[in-house]
Design goal:
- It is a single chain.
- The chain has about 425 residues and is an alpha/beta fold.
- It has a domain of about 280 residues: Glycosidases (TIM Barrel).
- It contains 16 helices and 15 strands.
- The strands form 4 sheets. An 8-stranded parallel barrel has the order 1-2-5-9-10-11-12-15, surrounded by 5 helices. Strands 6-8-7 form a 3-stranded antiparallel sheet, with no helix packed on it. Strands 3-4 form a two-stranded antiparallel ribbon.
- Strand 7 and strand 8 form a beta hairpin.
- Helix 3 packs parallel to helix 5 and helix 7 runs parallel beside helix 9.
- The protein is globular.
């Protein structure tokens, strides 16, 4: 047999040793390497609001709606469970506290939330109950009447502010009793229903004009040795209040994960400057500290010119690199329809920045636009790359829902 030259022979021996030693060596190193970020599915969500209750409360229409959304390529349903100081599901928490003497149920007597979660899960849709009103409540609600001491106030003693839901009061987010109520409600939803998670929006916050009640001023004085500044926009005063809301959200998210491991903590705030400076909602910190698992930023702008600059903001791109992130857009209102072409352009802009999309809200997806429902449904299917024959809606049935219930629906400033 012909012998190989010595240098070549040494090279082959080294190569053989490397092929033998390298795999276990690499395997050992990989044990200590951070895991590669998994390829994320594009987040495609829609809110199911109090205005959508006529659809959700009817068993047949609810199932048809879930099927249609699944067929169109959606993967998240944000279903209202806390609105107007009321639980939109059979809640032991509100009944035991005598905050509500009735339960929301379907037209066939069903537990709407339970059936919606089952229907969504059967079609691969994550149903994330939406804690819409957060710390906000109507002034005439049983919650506000029964617990006046829980309400925070402005410097002039005023208790109310004007929101998209009308005149509202604000539960004091710094009071232990308020924090306990919110925690009990949230844990009831995620444990009783095995929900995929929970969502908090721009009302898990406090307008900066508030916080001048005796409880909060005493707490601030105790911790800082000073009275709260007369200027509600004072930087230190804003930060002190925002930090305490963040601390509560940290405790709440940990309680949710302990009760239901794997549950999604979804947040849907306004754009950061507005959220932090005007609503004391430091959601950038929530993302950085791992409080939030998912971010859906409300940017409800009427045109592309004002919409586009918000997408590449540093805090948005930072969040996108950490957790699934989407931009929420307004798919229509009764007095301000949104064209399907504008929706197309916004979704394309989101994708160019690596962002998903969520629509506010279900009814407006196909019923409140300038185009016929069939055209809007076909456009949504095309937008999400779904090729399927779109049936014509039956008269009085899907996709056009009936007039809404007279319940407030959130329409944040975005």
């Amino acid at each position: 047999m012909k012998c190989l030259p010595r240098p070549r022979r040494r090279g082959l021996i080294a190569l053989a040793l490397a092929s033998w030693l390298l795999p276990p060596l690499l395997a050992g190193l990989l044990q200590f390497a951070p895991p590669a970020r998994a390829q994320q599915q594009e987040l495609r969500g829609v809110w199911l609001t109090a205005n959508d209750m006529p659809v959700l409360r009817d068993r047949g229409r609810m199932q048809a709606t879930v099927n249609q959304l699944a067929d169109l390529g959606f993967n998240r349903l944000y279903a209202v469970v806390w609105n107007g100081g009321l639980a939109y599901y059979p809640s032991q928490v509100v009944q035991q506290r005598q905050l509500q003497d009735f339960s929301f149920r379907g037209l066939q007597g069903q537990d709407v939330l339970a059936e919606l979660i089952d229907a969504g899960r059967s079609r691969g849709l994550a149903v994330v109950p939406w804690f819409e009103f957060g710390f906000m409540a109507p002034p005439d609600s049983e919650l506000a009447r029964r617990h006046r001491a829980w309400l925070t106030q402005k410097q002039d003693g005023g208790l109310t502010s004007i929101s998209a839901a009308g005149e509202v009061v604000w539960l004091n987010p710094f009071r232990p009793e308020v924090q306990q109520l919110i925690t009990d409600l949230v844990l009831e939803v995620v444990t009783t229903y095995g929900a995929d998670g929970i969502q908090f929006d721009d009302h898990m916050s406090l307008p900066r004009e508030f916080g001048y009640d005796s409880f909060t001023t005493a707490l601030y004085r105790k911790e800082t040795g000073r009275d709260p500044p007369a200027n509600p926009a004072d930087g230190a005063w804003v930060k002190w209040r925002a930090d305490r809301i963040t601390a509560f959200m940290d405790r709440l998210s940990k309680a949710v994960r302990a009760a239901r491991p794997g549950a999604i903590i979804s947040i849907s705030p306004n754009y950061y400057d507005f959220a932090y400076k005007l609503q004391l909602q430091d959601w950038r910190s929530w993302v950085q500290r791992g409080i939030a698992d998912e971010l859906v930023i409300q940017i409800y702008r009427p045109d592309l010119e004002s919409y586009l600059p918000q997408l590449n903001r540093p805090e948005v791109q930072e969040a996108r690199r950490r957790i699934p992130t989407a931009i929420a857009l307004m798919s229509g209102q009764r007095n301000r329809p949104t064209s399907i072409e504008l929706i197309r352009s916004k979704v394309a802009a989101n994708r160019a920045q690596g962002l998903g999309v969520a629509f506010f809200y279900l009814e407006s997806l196909w019923s409140l636009g300038p185009e016929p429902p069939e055209q809007r449904i076909a456009a949504l299917a095309d937008l999400f790359g779904v090729a399927l024959p779109m049936p014509k809606p039956a008269p009085g049935g899907l996709p056009a829902p009936p007039p809404p219930l007279p319940s407030p629906a959130s329409e944040p400033p975005g």
